[in-house]
Here is the input.
Amino acid sequence: MDRLFKNKDILAIAAVGVLILFGVAFGFGKYVKDTLPPAATILGGGEQEASTDSTGSPQATTTPAVPAPTLYSYIEVVGSCGPYFDGEPCINLRSGPGTDYPVVIKLRNGMVLKVADTVVSDGHTWYKIGFDGEVHYPERVTGGWYVAADYVHLFSDAGPSDPATHLNASSTKRIIINLSQEVLYAYDGDTLFMQQPISTGLELTPTDVGTFFVRRKTPDSYMQGPIPGLSDQYYDLPGVPWDLYFTVSGSAIHGAYWHDHFGQPWSHGCVNLPPDQAKLLYEWADVGTPVTVRN
Here is the structure.
């Protein structure tokens, strides 16, 4: 009887110990659950972090994706006349969407123009032309500008780039303009990408000498003169293609559709290339690419 009593005492004490241990374990587990922060996991290539809604249910939040760049429509003139309105018949730019409208200008091969709108008239598609940036002499643009879609090449581009404030020191690309040779060289490291005869500034409008960098890119520009403080000569050149601006004053490397005197000075200070070569350089060069102009 005494032995049985002692065994019952032992069993009672053991039972109390189990209850105490269970209570401690339950409390600790609840403490851990209430105090530890939610875990972050990487799923599907994006970072997701566990969170809870107002009811306490877990939810997942995803890091926003980088938006794709906005693209704009442009046309490139192909299959038209040459720099002196020679060769094939010129494509007409008209004041309205139809052949009954007057011809404003004749478009030459290599011109690039921005599309502001698309209009269908009498079953034919016409592109209304707009402009990237400011037109210095807006009085020269009278009425609308329209081109028949059948005679031009439509493409998309990000449009004018954001201006750069400094050169890209880590770039392996560089552009060298040799004024005495009238030749442009483009390198990626030690690899020659382009060697091309060019036309730089005439005696009264020389190309600046020095070390620069590509400040801004745009697929088209409307270049007009005179420019106060730089040139007193009149010129009016819409659709100047594939522009790499490299000086604060506005000098650019670009295509020239109005002449073919490459290899000799022929510009108002810019660096002229044949349009097809200017396009290749435009697609290759980055904003911030170093540009060196030397004699």
The domain at 173-294 is CATH 2.40.440.10 (L,D-transpeptidase catalytic domain-like). The first strand starts at residue 40 and ends at 43. Residues 2-35 form the longest helix (34 residues). The CA atoms of residues 160 and 208 lie 23 Å apart.
